[in-house]
Design goal:
This protein is an alpha/beta fold and about 140 residues long. Helices cover about 40% and strands about 15% of the residues. This is TIGR01244 family sulfur transferase.
Length: about 140
């Protein structure tokens, strides 16, 4: 697993395996968010399979498949709600962790400076500089 910290309670990762769920729980995570559409992966890693593995490990599991077209305000709010409602650390995953980081960044627009958002993403290993105009527009700056 390649788990990367974005904030003290929000972490992202490329695709995980159902067999990773016990280790994720042991690492102190309480919730896993699947941001990867089933159409991108084999049936062995579809959201229903991942949900069963997460629940067997004692983890909450949320499904919010994301594409460029589905980075909507409603989905941003849903992702931020999943993270806020979790009683501890959250792990969001997709193909590379980028979509999970982008949706986090969009959710921070207007609450943090654009520079701080981009610097936080960069510390996690994600260069979101191309998102600067969108973040600036969303923050009303």
């Amino acid at each position: 697993m390649d788990i990367r910290q974005i904030t003290p309670d929000y972490f992202v990762s490329p695709q995980i395996d159902p067999a990773d769920m016990p280790a994720i729980a042991e690492a102190g995570f309480t919730c896993v968010i699947c941001n990867r559409p089933d159409s991108e992966i084999p049936p062995s890693h579809h959201a229903d399979v991942m949900a069963q593995a997460a629940e067997a490990a004692g983890l909450a599991f949320k499904v919010l498949p994301l594409t460029h077209q589905t980075m909507t305000p409603d989905n941003v709010a849903a992702q931020m709600g999943f993270a806020a409602d979790a009683p501890g650390k959250v792990l969001a995953y997709c193909a590379s962790g980028t979509r999970c980081t982008v949706i986090w960044a969009l959710g921070q627009a207007g609450t943090q400076s654009v520079d701080d958002i981009l610097a936080t993403a960069q510390k996690g290993g994600y260069d979101l500089e191309g998102l600067r105009p969108t973040l600036t527009a969303l923050s009303g700056a």
